[in-house]
Amino acid sequence: MDDRKLTSEESIIQGYLAPLAAGHAGALGLKDDCAVVAPSAGCEFVLKTDAIAESVHFFSDDRPADIGWKALAVNVSDLAAKGARPVGYLMSLSFPAAPTRQWMADFAAGLGEAQSAFGMHLLGGDTDRRPGPISITPTVIGEVETGRAVRRTTARAGDVAYVSGTIGDARLGLMLRQRPELAVRWGLAPHDAEVLTARFLRPAPRLALVAALRSSARAAMDVSDGLAKDLDRMCRASAVAATIDAVRLPLSPAFRIVRERDPDAASAALFAGDDYEILAAVPPDAAGAFEAAAVSSGLLVTAVGRFREHVRDEAAVVLRDENGSEAPLAPIGWDHF
Amino acid sequence: MDDRKLTSEESIIQGYLAPLAAGHAGALGLKDDCAVVAPSAGCEFVLKTDAIAESVHFFSDDRPADIGWKALAVNVSDLAAKGARPVGYLMSLSFPAAPTRQWMADFAAGLGEAQSAFGMHLLGGDTDRRPGPISITPTVIGEVETGRAVRRTTARAGDVAYVSGTIGDARLGLMLRQRPELAVRWGLAPHDAEVLTARFLRPAPRLALVAALRSSARAAMDVSDGLAKDLDRMCRASAVAATIDAVRLPLSPAFRIVRERDPDAASAALFAGDDYEILAAVPPDAAGAFEAAAVSSGLLVTAVGRFREHVRDEAAVVLRDENGSEAPLAPIGWDHF
Description:
The structure is a homodimer. Chain A is of the alpha+beta class. Helix content of chain A is about 35%, strand content about 25%. The longest helix of chain A has 18 residues. The first copy, chain A, starts with 8 loop residues before the first helix and ends in a 9-residue tail after the last strand. At the A-B interface, strand 1, strand 2, helix 2, strand 4 and strand 5 of A face strand 1, strand 2, helix 2, strand 4 and strand 5 of B. Strand 2 of chain A pairs antiparallel with strand 1 of chain B, so a sheet runs across the interface.
């Protein structure tokens, strides 16, 4: 455990960050002020920035490797939803106090795992010291064939609403991270508790779905603030409405176990956010191809409902229960403010 | 004065930020999760991110318009040094408390002035609330003809060291911002005091020099942390040394007035940083063309010294005084850590 402090930006860059940039010539070895990059022939860039901060998006005692992974993963999740392949990222780091060598080594290791898994490299950034929480602000760069980025604003009435993976797990994972004793109360096997916690700590951007989204989806976005809220956003951006079937919402085995024992916790978790799944609007005649492509990529996708015409003054999103009763689904979920 | 609070990210984005994105189709009206952009034909992108934070890079009672201007300007300064034209930017904003409508309107106005002056548009970003100082983290995108970005690492022995504009003013401006009464002690006319303060509050990226840098400079970087420190960095990155003539350092009339009255203040300010000038290495046979191009663009450039072979174990940067005596110039200046 090397708890010596890193007291210069240069020692952080050259000791821990430059190795993350070694695989991309455009990073200029982090020895210049800027990065130089161009999309592949016939492609354009897709850009996104989303910050994560200590005590807001992660805990002070989270493993630094998990923090590094998460910082990149939550941004790459957006690239995946746009049908883009990751290329690289810049990263602005701010520390209230000089980090230790051990912290920085672990953090860089987590970033390294993430960038290897996602197929991208560090291209540049800045590091400074200022009061407040540790903050990590990546700007990620992906690429997509020109004109083929999948938008949020283009869902149409009649499209099938698909969700990848399962929802609600990450919030249960957060509850377990805060109160590990809940695993016993919820009757979870250690493995199930680990799976849920990992969904909070190590979100997995659905890059395997990129090709299927590009070929079959009319619109898509990532589900980061909860399905209710993000579906509401897609509906408003596309000027449509949607009806979702509660019984079709994709739930993991572990989530179902918790729901049996503690329905209130499950209910609070379901639309709470941090899922990093993908919500897609797929035309009905492309649904078969979309599901087939998802299956062949190893990812579960579930048709959870339909987009429809929006009726003025009515809720954008309606949830239909197992009896067929419909009720407006409020855009609850994570709010940054 | 509208001091109602802005309590949702959506109201900030659609009320104040979306208008800044209106001029670039790739921003998708800030209604999507990502921006979509490609460099012009034959060009590549130059990318940079540098955060500014309250109480570190600006004061809590600075005008929000100045803060917005500065956030963009300090990043665009790097693009200019690389010979790149600004295209757009993403921006991550973090507030410890909801900003007022007035603050946000003024801040957006400053950003708007800056992006108009620099020729770029807002393309995306995120806004959240977290403890700590107000932080603004732009990631700027510029473009340059493929392969023509001007590097920091390519200065050669024999090249002339040029500096644009004048140095040291911004730090005197910072001192005046903190202690306005210094203007009297320094014998400054109100106009001179304003000029110095403006150099701290509203740095002007040297975009007028972009064409001259691309056609004549072998290496360049912006002078943000002080000439001594940044020249040392360029020397190390290029594996050369440099000798600078003290009498040639470009000083403004206001700086000279202060130096007469308060040599210690002037001496402390000279290499303290925040200049946002450009340091360039120009081959001797291109020096005439470089100066001519700078003059025709309306910018002062001054040959302050020469790059030379680096002798092992000797200082990278040497300062020669008016008597011809040489002494190592320590890489003093602004340190982020």
